[in-house]
Amino acid sequence: MKRWLSALLVVLLLFTLSACSNPFKTGGDAEDAASQLMGALSDAVSGALGSNASGDETKTVAAKTYHNGLLGVTCAIPADVVVADLIEANMTENAADSMDRDAFEWYEYGDGGSMLDLLTLQTAEATNDGDHAEFHVFAEDYPDFTYEEYLAATEDYLTEESDGYVYTLKSKRTEQLMGIAFNTFVISVSHADNDVPYIEEYRIADIDGLYLNVYINYWSDSSKSKTDAENMLKDVFSISR
């Protein structure tokens, strides 16, 4: 269901910003940046989210609250969701234990960028479940990208067609979550083999030079899927700076 599950972000991932062998050059336009992002995307996604994408066992975690103290992120995991991935080096029960970025588990892209994965939750293990919904939070570090360049490249990438999937930008906006400004992209994803498109929502914020991504997806024809995704965003995620 998620774009990276078809082994394209996907995002992130995203938008998972990944590139060719050369480092990103500052000052390039968004089109050049977006073309760079496509090069090693599949490798970055499969490496960073491999256990989730491959259908390996999900984690069993009691309903708890986890933090990333450096980013100010808190996630309260409810008892009725599937924990597809929880990076315990990056999300700790005590916020003071996750303040040192050098102690985190980073996924290095090899081009100077890196990903800090935090947490992935699902309402069902099977992504083709008609009521499936997903929540994922992670951050990326791209020192050679300004935030504006990152957003522009992300938008270009999210509207590319790939492997028969058609990505349509439904809307973009700036919104406030807990007093933090997020740039939100809403994408409709369709495929010739599936009559029902699904919706991806990416919320991105610049947190002291780290680009925080909060992602949800849901099936467009399922009110339960959409409600569950929105509830995970509302009830699971919080941020304080």
Describe the SSE topology.
Elements: H1 30-38, H2 41-48, H3 50-53, E1 65-68, E2 73-76, E3 82-86, E4 107-108, E5 114-122, E6 133-141, H4 147-158, E7 165-177, E8 180-191, E9 194-207, E10 210-219, H5 223-236, E11 237-239
Antiparallel strand pairs: 1-2, 2-11, 3-5, 4-5, 5-6, 6-10, 7-8, 8-9, 9-10
Helix pairs in contact: 1-4
- What would you give as the CATH superfamily? Mog1/PsbP, alpha/beta/alpha sandwich
Average pLDDT works out at 81
Output the CATH topology. Protein Transport Mog1p, Chain A
CA-to-CA gap between the ends?
32 Å
Q: State the CATH architecture.
A: 3-Layer(aba) Sandwich
Query: How many strand elements?
Result: 11
The arrangement of helices and strands along the chain is HHHEEEEEEHEEEEHE
Q: What share of residues are in beta strands?
A: 35-45%
The global form is globular
The secondary-structure class comes to alpha+beta
Main β sheet profile: 8 strands, antiparallel
Task: List the total number of helices.
Answer: 5
What would your notes on this structure say?
By secondary structure, this protein is an alpha+beta fold. The protein has one domain (3-239): Protein Transport Mog1p, Chain A. The protein is 20% helix and 35% strand. The chain has helices at 30-38, 41-48, 50-53, 147-158, 223-236, and strands at 65-68, 73-76, 82-86, 107-108, 114-122, 133-141, 165-177, 180-191, 194-207, 210-219, 237-239. Strands 3, 4, 5, 6, 7, 8, 9 and 10 form an 8-stranded antiparallel sheet that branches. Strands 1-2-11 form a 3-stranded antiparallel sheet. Strand 9 and strand 10 form a beta hairpin. Helix 1 (30-38) crosses helix 4. The longest helix has 14 residues, at 223-236.
